[in-house]
Amino acid sequence: MFVSENLSVNEKNHLVIGKNDTVELAREYGTPLYVLDEDLIRKNCRLYKDAMDKYYGGNGLILFANKAFCSKYTCRLVNEEDLGIDVVSGGELYTAIKADFPMDKVYFHGNNKTVDELKLAVSHGVGHIIVDNIYELESLNEIAKDAGIVQNIMFRIKPGVDAHTHSFIQTGQIDSKFGVALENGEAYEIIEAAGKMSNVKVDGVHCHIGSQIFDIAPFEKAAEVMVNFMGDIKDKLGIEIDKLNLGGGYGIMYTEKDDPVPYDEYIKKVSEVVKNTAQSRGIKIPMILMEPGRSIVAPAGITLYTVGGVKDIKGIRKYVSVDGGMGDNPRYIMYESEYSAVVANNAGASAVEKVTIAGKCCESGDILLKDALMPEIKVGDTLAVLATGAYNYSMASNYNRIPRPAVVAVSNGEAKVVVKRETYEDLIRNDV
Ligand code: LLP
Fold it and tell me: Where are the beta strands (DSSP E) in 145-233?
């Protein structure tokens, strides 16, 4: 009935997440409110880990892509589930440090890491830095030399694979700001250069073809291209690369139109491609890493809002305004993303009309759902937007000086605040 498996309706006709009544959560913690189902996040982590054990003999590591939801809470949670993490900025790294995340399981990405960010990573013993370009490589080699260490590195490679998703979240093609390309020899040259440096060790290669992808084929293609590249590097440079990081990007269900492939199926198919290609190239079967972000947290999250004004512009459109919007969920204004929503205090009701759910920011594009089929919605209702666990909190802003909502995690019927609601005082904290 709902897009996420952890949602149901109780005897009061209220939407339930895990074992928690969402109307009560809204009453207790206020709205807008992000709610995360901890049990589902753990389940998703285990699904990936178990598939890696089953189909790849455990010779792999699942990294949670922190950008999907970065907080001390999520860092601790995925650490308890034995995952590693990928971080993409000094801020994400700092969060992991403060959450006591084991630094050897941190993989640091980014197409323009600053010298300060690299120094922070080296000084805290970050396990792997995924080098994006030659300038970064040279600078990192110097930083590692000054620190008296040899830094393990991987390279971000563009495998030239076209993933069918929104153009803003496609990253595997040559015309991308991320990484070095295979087609023009850049990838080969950067590894050759690194092989001659004293304070970096080439330990792996990495690719990430995009996000919210539903086909398995582009992932299989990328894996094949990458393993062949590892074979070329061994043949031409004599460098044996141990690890292959295949990025993230597995699609999830936002609306009934979305049809994600089971994630263990991805791992099964991609594992076969990696093993077969490695064998045919005569190289050692590499350790593989995968970096799911969205598929671990998105289905576990919902956002609760209170309905304010309802504006029926006859013959044009009916707008239902809520007390949040693009500040807490900028995905419609950025990608015209689609979501599903439920009237949480009347969750079993059938859809009767088309409405547009709008936010409270001064932007006409501040929409959460456009022309969505919904039951009757009244002022004061609690509205739940579903599958908001990824790229909502982490992309939230204070536009119009609206404080960011709190995050409440629920587990087995218990709820706790894991990120506090911002106050007006927080908003002016750095003003001088
Ligand atoms: N690894 C790397 C290197 C990435 O760049 C990303 C996402 C991931 C892993 C995780 O991908 P996922 O499994 O979450 O699809 N803000 C956009 C998504 C941007 C994704 C950026 N990179 C959105 O809201 O759709």
Answer: 151-158, 180-181, 200-206
Q: Whose CA is nearest to atom 20 of ligand 1?
A: 211
Please give the domain boundaries of the chain with CATH numbers for all domains. Answer: 7-37+298-427 (2.40.37.10), 109-292 (3.20.20.10)
The Cα 307–Cα 358 span in angstroms is 10
Q: Using a 6 Å cutoff on CB, does residue 310 contact ligand 1?
A: no
328's tokens: 């807490």
By the 8 A CB rule, do 63 and 45 touch? no
- The count of C-alpha atoms lying within 13 angstroms of the C-alpha of 194, restricted to the half-sphere facing its C-beta, is 34
Q: Residue for token digits 């076209």?
A: 162
Read off the pTM: 0.97
Active-site choice (45, 75, 207, 362): 362
Pairing relationship of beta strands 406-411 and 414-419 according to DSSP bridges: antiparallel
pLDDT means over runs of 10, the chain (432 residues): 92 97 98 98 98 96 98 98 98 98 98 97 98 97 98 95 66 81 92 97 95 93 96 95 96 96 94 98 97 98 97 96 98 97 97 97 97 97 98 98 98 97 98 98
| Contact (Cβ atoms closer than 8 angstroms) between residue 184 and residue 175 | no
| DSSP state letter for 413 | T
